[in-house]
Write a structure and sequence with these properties.
globular; three-stranded antiparallel β-sheet; six-stranded mixed β-sheet
Length: 188
């Protein structure tokens, strides 16, 4: 069954762009791991608990885009990923609110090659946000995705919306407000 929701169409469009640019990871079965990948966006791990979350909590730590990682195994509840430069392992927890498949979700964040061509097209404000793993006024939607990842699907059904909702923790949220395709403000 093909979903026709605006968010699903937006995700399909992003995946198509990434696959054309060679960034998307070929589908693998969970029992085929481990396999090497790179991050397609910045990731913000919970360092104290060695976790990453499918709801994309915006924790203070930063794993930069294009970082070599290895997916060790995938189950229906979590994935075990290794940060290759340090050897540190993270449990990537799949939240019950996740409405895309595990494979679709992982394909948004991990791929075979760094999206350097996309990064090279970003302007100075987007580049700064990408380096810092933060959102700044004037950033594009593509810059925000690369800097802090995708907003959770259950809270932002389409990337065409002008308000994207993120979580900094289980209880803390913030919204990225766009006007004309550029960040106008971040509302806590």
């Amino acid at each position: 069954m093909v979903s026709s929701s605006p968010r699903a169409l937006s995700v399909v469009l992003v995946l198509l762009v990434l696959s054309v640019s060679g960034c998307r990871r070929r589908p693998r079965n969970a029992d085929e791991g481990p396999w090497p990948v790179v991050t397609l966006t910045n990731l913000h791990p919970d360092e104290a608990h060695a976790r990453l979350y499918s709801v994309n909590y915006q924790r203070p730590a930063l794993i930069p885009v294009c970082t070599p990682m290895q997916i060790e195994r995938v189950t229906d509840r979590e994935a075990l990923v290794t940060h290759v430069p340090s050897g540190r392992q993270y449990t990537y927890v799949f939240h019950r609110s996740m409405s895309e498949t595990i494979q679709e979700h992982l394909d948004l964040y991990f791929g075979q090659s760094c999206p350097q061509q996309v990064i090279a097209t970003l302007g100075p404000v987007d580049q700064q946000g990408l380096r810092d793993g933060r959102v700044y006024p004037g950033m594009t939607k593509q810059g925000v995705i690369l800097a802090i990842g995708y907003p959770p699907l259950h809270a932002t059904p389409t990337l065409e919306q002008d308000v994207w909702k993120y979580w900094s923790s289980r209880m803390g949220t913030f919204e990225v407000i766009f006007a004309g395709g550029f960040v106008q403000t971040v509302r806590q």
